[in-house]
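Subject: Interface between my chains keeps coming out wrong

I've been trying for a while to get a sensible model of this assembly. When I model each chain on its own everything looks fine, but I need the whole thing in one frame so I can look at the contacts. Pasting all components below, labels as-is. Any help appreciated, I'm running out of ideas.
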Amino acid sequence: MILRKKLMAGNWKMNRTSTDAVALAQEIVVAIGKQAEVDVVVCPPFTALESVGKALDGSTVKLGAQNMHSEVSGAFTGEISAPMLRAFFATHVILGHSERRTYFGESDEFINKKVIAALKHQLRPIFCVGETLAEREAGATLKVVQTQTERGLEGVSKELATSVVIAYEPVWAIGTGMVATSEQAQEVHAFIRSLLTKLFGEHVAQKVRILYGGSMKSANAAELLGQKDIDGGLIGGASLEARSFVELVKAATVAK
Ligand code: 13P
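Reply #2:
Try treating it as a single job with all components included. I did that and got this:
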């Protein structure tokens, strides 16, 4: 059996100026910047990537971005490319977040191009999938997750697939305080792993980490992180305070 190291990622979304982001990063570094039992990533806004990267220097906490364009450079006003993220020593990038899909009209095809581009530039995609409440109520959860996963990972080689991190984020649980039960989450995570087995084979599928995201906090983390196919968390609100984020990382450390 392959043991997957847990990964806890903080998605700071559109919060914190560069100065405030550095203060938050410093607090996190002081509390958990030396532990290596769990992989920890923080994803500040673009404007704070460079300063937070410097604050993380010498710690085990890694730097991630929240989005990027699939092209390397060119006339794409307001966009940021993979090489630009690499220049700040980012190692991860969140792609296909439901907020990008919903508010900015990102399609599976576009997200797929970004996944391919991230991998080409040695960035690990934290590739997000998840159903809306209406889709869950219509019994379409697995179908929706299947389509997003298959389309988003089209053309990814077996070799590079192990660098992909998948985040299952039920849209109805994001920022709502409505968390998926551990059974609901585990069901979808196991389903995603079965899709990965079909796409890349058992060995690769067992290596890929699948994070849960959506109102994860210390009250529900232990139970979620204790599930067989839940390999960490993508955390929004609770990652904006060092104390609550650190508690979640500690919960991942003890989760079996
Ligand atoms: P919350 O933890 O605030 O629900 O956000 C989850 C999320 O969207 C992380 O990407």
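Reply #3:
Confirming on my end. The first strand starts at residue 7 and ends at 11.
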